[in-house]
Amino acid sequence: MKSFNEIVDQLGDSEGRKALLGMLRGIEREALRIDDKGQLAQDLHPHVLGSALTHSRITTDYSEALLEFITPVNNNIDTLLEGLTQTHAYTVRNLNGQKLWPVSMPCYVGDVNHIPLAQYGTSNTGLMKTLYRKGLTHRYGALMQIISGVHFNFSVSAELWQRLFDSKLSNNPQMRSDSLSRCEFISESYFGLIRNYRRLVWVLPYLFGSSPALCSSFVKDQTIDFEFEKTGKGTLYLPYATSLRMSDLGYTNKEQDTLNISYNSLPEYLAGVQAAIKMPSKQFEKIGVKVDGEYRQLNNNILQIENEFYSPIRAKRVTKAGEKPSQALMRAGVEYIEVRALDVNPFSPVGIDATQVRFLDLFLLYCLLSPSALTDELGEKEIAANLKAVVLEGRKPGLMLTQNGNDISLQLWLKQIFADLSRLAILLDGEHEHGYQNALNHWAAAIDDPSLTLSGRVLNEIITKGVDHGVWVSQLANNYHEFLTTYPLSPETEQQYKDEAELSLNKQHQIEMESMPNFDVFLQEYFKEVASPELYSGCKA
Question: Per the database record, which ranges form the Glutamate--cysteine ligase domain (predicted)?
């Protein structure tokens, strides 16, 4: 089993660098629509933006008011972010003066019953998407579902996979690449990446967490195990917190804590997810599935569908029409991974910036190229404890974490990681570029000075400058609205968005016009077709 440094050395030639630089990325950014008073928008998803069911770039998540912007897959960081900015700009110009809320945690939330559920039309597929969200409401409440985040999709090049496969460079100490097909090698290597990522996921909320504070209107009937401090203006905060979005107050699901889904291999992961989909929940059974002729949720299992499994990272493959995520993974293995631990960056008009993307490139390559031991129960507890500590107290001076059963300071561990990332940054930049090294240096400054993290910068605005959280975010929303409404869009680009909107509406209409069974039959058939992980015999591609 080769070390990270040995693998980097073997990739140190021009062809290795080229293979490493062939990374593909995609971004999904969520943002609430708000009216001129800062309240959650109550109107339907704007028709001019197209169909939320079928549009490739502009859709909705939980609520009609929760937009989701999706970039095409891209190899170039500048092109990726330019496309994301153009989508924001086109959208904002078609919101009739509404603005985008530029942070993860909602504000000015009145009656939660007035949070409009996302609608996807009259087709069975559309009705199922809405019912799934209705089930989430009954299970966890609507407030949790309107928290926004950024998802980062990542894959490495076919050339890099071939290089690793041919050289028998595996990050899994129990995996013999000569006994696997190339497709199986890729899947198991991605799961090695996932295991390393989960051990180190605390790095992301430390650097990029930007929700250490929130509006008091967000905290209603939630049961939380920590006590907020409060500014004179009514903002709630934790003095050393990084990402309340990732705390028990945010995107968590205690019912899933007992699942123990394994990331030690693709077959074990598939088996765990499928068991959860079939596992009844006594808590959710109390809600009822169909009561007085009206559906409340898709079923009463711990997971209604696979998407309900909350995890800071997912193994993914693009699905075919009618295919479930696990079926796609069973068919052809892992194609890319989805990072889901990112708060919306309030200092960027599009929720993420180029220094973050470059850091994520380095971080995920590091997770891929480093040895990745299998995880046991003790390791899972260590992962959870480290993440919770950083989420709630990440900037606390002298904070100690646990590394393989031993105490280590957060700062020392970060410096060890950054030393390895530096080798990658130098290799990726080559002789004439400095983008990766500059990005790494930018975030390295936050190791010894936590005020330079995103959460530190947020608290500086709210505590040091004494500005109410909601007022500060509203001003950001105004600033970004002005930036995006004046952002240059060529006539050709605007027309492309108009054409895409029209095409998506036509696609939805076509789906709704096609003959199909009634909704009860549709659901029965859908859940009959749950993939069976025991049938997985390895992809041969």
Answer: 9-390
